[in-house]
Amino acid sequence: MARKNKGIILLIIGVLLLITAGGWYAYNILEDNKAGKQAQQLLDVITTQSVTPDSTAEAVIIAGGDAFCGRVIIDKLSVELPVYNEWNYTRLKSAPCRYTGSIETNDIIIAAHNYKSHFGSLNKLTEGDEIKFIDPYGKSHLYQVCEIINLDGTAVSDMHSGGWDFTLFTCTKGGEQRVTVRCIRKENS
Question: Which of the listed CATH numbers 3.40.50.2300, 2.60.40.290, 3.40.50.970, 2.40.260.10 matches domain 6-188?
Fold first, then answer.
């Protein structure tokens, strides 16, 4: 009888774990969809706003009380996203953020969540692929992917090293590493 009770308890625990996993999966899908919709709404707004110099004399687009340094376009991944001028975790839930650097100094680093609607497919890029960054003035900056690596999540100095013109990164699914895409400026158009 005790063996039967133990089996029932284990079965109940297993079912509860499956329900929890299913709920977590559904939550992540909803968060991804929400982030995609928010990013699209922000993109729609910033493409109609005028440019405003910020306190550091860099151009930004002010929309909804937030500053945006431009937008990133990755045609191969069918991604076009606004980029917040400064990053924080709240902003990161709706769109990519400038982590550090700038277009003007050829050292911009942009971070985003690994949502499918954001940078979740960065690992599908290959050397030679092109990425565009549209600055607040509407000027297109073209970059070519030169390196795709996974960096340890705590390797902050490695993220800044190498003197790359343009870097994108996002967490891997487990969050322990960062998919990092390094690019050089190809041309301006």
Answer: 2.40.260.10
